[in-house]
Write a structure and sequence with these properties.
The structure is a single chain. With 357 residues, this protein is an alpha+beta fold. The chain has four helices and 19 strands. The protein has helices at 54-58, 71-95, 103-117, 121-124; strands at 2-3, 10-11, 149-151, 156-158, 163-165, 183-185, 194-195, 200-202, 206-207, 218-223, 229-236, 244-246, 251-253, 257-259, 262-284, 291-298, 302-310, 317-336, 344-355. Strands 9, 12, 15, 16, 17, 18 and 19 form a seven-stranded antiparallel sheet that branches. A hairpin with a 3-residue loop joins strand 13 (251-253) and strand 14 (257-259).
Amino acid sequence: MWRCKFCDKTNLDDQKVCQYCTAPNPDAPKAKPAGAPFSPVQPQAGVNPPAPDWNARYNPDPKAPKTPIKLDKVLKIMVIAATAVLIVYLATLLFQRPGGKSDVANDASSDLTTAQAGKPLSDAADVTATPIETPMPTGTPEPTREPIVADAVAELYLDFGQTYQCSTKDFNLPYEISEDEITWSCPENDALTTCSKNGLIEASYYQVDPEMSYNEEVVITGTTENGSALSYHVYTGDGQTYTFDWSTTARSMRGSISGYVIVSDEMIVQCNGFSVYYEYELTKGKLDANAWSVWVREDGTTWVRVQDIKVENKVGEVYDISFDHPITFNEIWIMPESYSPEYSYTSSFQVGYLIFN
């Protein structure tokens, strides 16, 4: 082996020149002639290059002019360096797993687990491992208490005089509402159904229109401080209907009195009264006074005088008739109390507000 005195690097013994700088090995054996026949060559002037100065090659003259560095070469180097950095950054993002840990870290953790698998439990416990972060359980968030508007899940039907206590259980609500934070109210209505502030609904005793099985809807509303509104749609009645018309034949009373009466198509059971609009026009004879009386035929057999009223010729009026005890009937007779021997009149009526209490 020999050390090159120009580049100071070690070479093998049989090398004639340095394999790093191509400088000649001064200790290399001289080559023998190959023994080829002599072939003279015509010399040419100026073609023999001068011998290389190896000392000048590895020890350059500091006073020699420097070769300027070209700007485009610098720019190329900067672009190559920036591209390399970008490639490394993108590769890091590509191989990084969710949770901020790279594949390398995970692989190392996997190797550690594999290495511990063959050790006893006591040995494995000595290995300090990074604890796994367990996410904290999150509870179900409470629903926001935004104002809501809701109807009861079903319509409410109440019999005459029946009561009902309002409750949030009758509604499908997105959140719980305390009973004591609700104020209930009932609008004015013909049936006179009422409701207290605490939500006690009381159905009326009136069947406003006898031909309707239930009175018109009454909306009971409960309101809260945050603006929520809960509503019941209430119907009162017993489902029975009645149609009134004039009788097709005259009825007789006291032997000498006869006339047509108001008849219901159904028996009105245990009724306590009603309202009737009545009007007449005298067509013959005269009436000595405006005193009239109202009768009902109890159980369809016996005429019972229930109230006296005053009726003027051609003046219609609504009369409220009340009984002193519940009566079952289907016929009503309204007649004058004093009259001339011969008289006649035409009349019209309308029955409503049957009372059941």
